């Protein structure tokens, strides 16, 4: 990677753990001024990253985060909408309450819409910017036993991202989606453990069941850094003609070309 990212300002939501942490670290190494949001502070020194505590399921949080970034840096060049999680229990439609659907929608879709709406006017004024929305392979390959409401919210995110890319492309702003498959993050490991407990099986058996269900030709989980590598490329000038695309990083799991 060249020095094209040096000095740019980036926001990484959900940037203290897992994929978000890996992305924030990779961008920092590229010379980016990284702002990280999460509900809780990072556990360790983040090498100059600027932390803003925020619960993005709350409607007012996006405006608060945007205001603080612009007051501190005066610009925003990169938005990585990474905050998201499968909040609902497994078991299909019958176990999902209105609250489950609402919570997944707020975290996995509306948080992205609000952050982008708060910061896009600055990107438009700059006539330049890049947005990466982190989705999931489960939006195209839903597992009804485990991810129904989460998959639905992320599928909406995919459509929104394409529409937004079409709208703001002529204004100098690129929007892409990265859809990881099974990634070795704290959230995924917790998900496997919870699935094991609810199914009365061991964690190893739960992991095998998930991998068998998803079908990963490479036969392993991705490392967060493998997702971060693609994101870093997509926000760089090497990807200046790429917008409106959804990239699967799933070890070959998606069974279509």
Please name the defining characteristics of this protein.
257 residues; NAD(P)-dependent dehydrogenase, short-chain alcohol dehydrogenase family; 7 strands; SDR; alpha/beta; Rossmann fold; NAD(P)-bd_dom_sf; 44% helix; single chain; globular; seven-stranded parallel β-sheet; SDR_fam
Question: In words, what does this structure look like?
Answer:
44% of the residues lie in helices and 14% in strands. The mean pLDDT is 93. Helix 3 packs parallel to helix 4. It is of the alpha/beta class. It has helices spanning 18-29, 61-73, 98-126, 148-168, 186-199, 203-214, 224-235; strands at residues 9-13, 33-38, 50-53, 78-81, 129-134, 173-180, 246-249. A seven-stranded parallel sheet has the order 3-2-1-4-5-6-7, with helices on both faces. The chain is globular. It has one domain (9-182, 223-249): 3-Layer(aba) Sandwich (Rossmann fold), CATH 3.40.50.720.
Task: Please outline the helices and strands.
Elements: E1 9-13, H1 18-29, E2 33-38, E3 50-53, H2 61-73, E4 78-81, H3 98-126, E5 129-134, H4 148-168, E6 173-180, H5 186-199, H6 203-214, H7 224-235, E7 246-249
Parallel strand pairs: 1-2, 1-4, 2-3, 4-5, 5-6, 6-7
């Amino acid at each position: 990677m060249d020095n094209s990212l040096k000095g740019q300002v980036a926001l990484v939501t959900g940037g203290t753990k897992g994929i978000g942490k890996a992305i924030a670290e990779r961008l920092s190494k590229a010379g980016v001024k990284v702002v990280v949001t999460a509900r809780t502070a990072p556990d360790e020194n983040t090498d100059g990253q600027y932390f803003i505590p925020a619960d993005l399921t709350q409607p007012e949080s996006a405006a608060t985060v945007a205001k603080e970034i612009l007051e501190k840096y005066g610009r925003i060049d990169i938005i990585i909408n990474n905050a998201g999680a499968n909040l609902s229990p497994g078991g299909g439609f019958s176990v999902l309450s209105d609250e489950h659907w609402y919570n997944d929608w707020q975290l996995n879709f509306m948080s992205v819409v609000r952050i982008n709406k708060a910061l896009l006017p600055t990107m438009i004024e700059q006539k330049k910017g890049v947005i990466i929305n982190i989705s999931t392979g489960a939006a195209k390959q839903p597992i009804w036993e485990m991810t129904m409401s989460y998959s639905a919210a992320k599928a909406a995110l995919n459509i929104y991202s394409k529409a937004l890319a079409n709208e703001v492309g002529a204004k100098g702003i690129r929007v892409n989606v990265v859809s990881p498959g099974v990634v070795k993050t704290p959230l995924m490991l917790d998900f496997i453990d919870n699935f094991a407990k609810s199914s009365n099986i061991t964690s190893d058996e739960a992991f095998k069941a998930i991998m068998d269900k998803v079908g990963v030709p490479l036969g392993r989980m991705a490392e967060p850094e493998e997702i971060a590598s693609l994101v870093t490329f997509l926000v760089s000038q090497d990807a200046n003609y790429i917008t409106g695309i959804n990239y699967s990083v799933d070890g070959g799991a998606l069974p279509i070309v």
